[in-house]
Amino acid sequence: MMADRANPIRFGILGCAAIARKVSRAIALAPNATVVAVGSRSVDKAQRFIADNGIPPATRAHGSYEAVLDDPAVDAVYVPLPTSLHVRWAVAAAEHGKHVLLEKPTALCAADLDRILEACGSQGVQFMDSTMWMHHPRTARMRDLLSDPNRFGQLKALHSIFTFCGDTDFLQNDIRVKPDLDALGALGDLGWYCIRSVLWAADYELPKTAIAHHGCVKNQAGVILSCGATLVWDDGKVATFHCSFLSNLTMELCVMGTRGTLHLSDFVVPFEETPVQFKFSTDTKELDTGWQPLPSEHVISTDLPQEALMIQEFSRLAGSIRDSGSKPDEKWPIITRKTQLVLDAVKESIETGFEPVNVTD
Amino acid sequence: MMADRANPIRFGILGCAAIARKVSRAIALAPNATVVAVGSRSVDKAQRFIADNGIPPATRAHGSYEAVLDDPAVDAVYVPLPTSLHVRWAVAAAEHGKHVLLEKPTALCAADLDRILEACGSQGVQFMDSTMWMHHPRTARMRDLLSDPNRFGQLKALHSIFTFCGDTDFLQNDIRVKPDLDALGALGDLGWYCIRSVLWAADYELPKTAIAHHGCVKNQAGVILSCGATLVWDDGKVATFHCSFLSNLTMELCVMGTRGTLHLSDFVVPFEETPVQFKFSTDTKELDTGWQPLPSEHVISTDLPQEALMIQEFSRLAGSIRDSGSKPDEKWPIITRKTQLVLDAVKESIETGFEPVNVTD
């Protein structure tokens, strides 16, 4: 038996963060998932969230996160709480036998993440971080090309950018600029995606060393508003990324191999839900009058947006555990942990004045 | 009186490098320039170059570079010789009263470049480096947008990439991998364009510090095959670039301001001669279902390729000096020198183990 429309994975949402709006819509769109409970620090807030976001009125509004975990009708929780609360609530969810879909950045450091992953592992529940672009069929198509020695060759270098321009209110009040809430700032919120894109392109081979770039900007509380880093592998591969709350919305990914180049300008969130595109070129020559061949544009259409595909995949795995006694898919926690390890190394490099830091497991 | 079809600037070409083919075509296309002499170390080679490249058969073939400089019919020289020969021949050309269009990288270091610029200055001849994309009308259009506070805001960050994949013959035999010829390797050949794009976007404000990226690759002779760097300004602007002979042809430029983002994937050599494009977005928001507004695509058509526009501009300036007693335009040597200063700082950072190096004038 599988999770499907008649027997969906029943989600509880912990907290009413802005991103929970997008994910609750995704749960509604996914054919094998449904929202059954929303928990907030007040019942009123949970009720308002349900009413405002077109969530079925029968959904239970709980006045605490605990109540969601105690709700026997909840199979899985989506946790969009501030990063500083992740260990407490993700561990508690696992201990209540709930599958855990955790917002990124997953933890303030790998040691914290390990507590979450250990709880999920020992309870046999599925863990996945909420990195939506991983689940777009475009991502799989691009990965196929990067794996093709005749079209891409050997990975040599890549660059990833994710920025948006926070307004005054954001830069003063958002949880992502508060040292007691999302202490990793732009590195955790945006750099997470850049680091993930780097690992994805490198087929999840950890770099040996991370060196943060000079020019890191912090706010008065010491939270990172803008930073970048170089990541280096033993075989000579090199990656750089830049993330910032201070520049207009930008999401660039350029991956270079000996024979091919992949480029897209909307790798985190596609320009439009469908169709989406990317550019790829192979064995490109520069002639006197231009390029030969021109980069080719690949177009991919989807029935569901990437966040709904993420929910669908998570629910497929959770359903397989719930209904067929399967084991959790280890791929997702492994990828999460590698992302967190690189993030930790970049942060340490920033804190030590841009010195090289070994990425250690 | 101006240089025009009836009274063109008469070029002598010093050497028969591959790039001289493209520039001799550009001289033929420019309405105010013509080739009158080609000099090589052998007359045969010069004659062959003239015959092979559709240069008018009346063009004089000289068996030495000196003979071109002694040719009274030559107004200006184009110098595509290896970088190590630039001081000698560019200075000699200036001392013979010839205007100097010099291939990049212009010199092995700023001190060498200064000898060239001093010779051109004291002789009152026009100096320009051969950085073709500077002369494309697309470049001016993009610069207008970057200067618009309502569309771009304040420059915060940019990233520039120029790579191509040299084949085995290139990596063993090309002058650009030889320490006695083009000792700056990929940094001089490709990084030159990246650094120029950074300075161009920053309105030629020199960065304060250059820090080369770990992961620099050199050949056995110590010539740079792949490298990158971060450039930092006092006001918090930051730029990164990557250049390499080891990855498929890639030419990315992404410039981020508080309000706008500029992006193009063919900044050095357009995909096709005409039309050319770039993308620009302003005040972009991420909605649950995509971007608002989408980046707009700007399309620019030209009558002449950018290298011919470069020749036309150089010839206009040289003609104004020759025919109207004007002074050389100082803009071009100033830009060249800033590019060289940053390049020198990056090189020093590589040589000192990726330490920060002040960019000093």
Chain-wise SSE layout:
The structure is a homodimer of 361-residue chains.
Chain A: E1 9-14, H1 18-29, E2 33-39, H2 43-52, E3 60-62, H3 65-70, E4 76-79, H4 86-95, E5 99-102, H5 110-123, E6 127-129, H6 137-146, E7 155-165, H7 168-173, H8 185-201, E8 209-212, E9 217-218, E10 224-232, E11 238-244, E12 246-257, E13 260-264, E14 276-282, E15 285-287, E16 290-292, E17 296-300, H9 306-324, H10 331-351, E18 357-358
Parallel strand pairs in A: 1-2, 1-4, 2-3, 4-5, 5-6, 7-11
Antiparallel strand pairs in A: 7-12, 8-10, 8-18, 9-10, 10-11, 12-13, 13-14, 14-17, 15-16
In short:
The first copy, chain A, is α/β, with parallel strands linked by helices and 361 residues long.
Name the helicity range of chain A: 25-40%
Percent of residues of chain A in beta strands? Answer: 25-35%
Oligomer: homodimer
Tell the overall outline of chain A: globular
CATH superfamily of the largest domain in chain A: Dihydrodipicolinate Reductase, domain 2
Largest interface: A-B, 64 and 64 residues
End-to-end separation of chain A in angstroms reads 37 Å
**Total count of strands of chain A:** 18
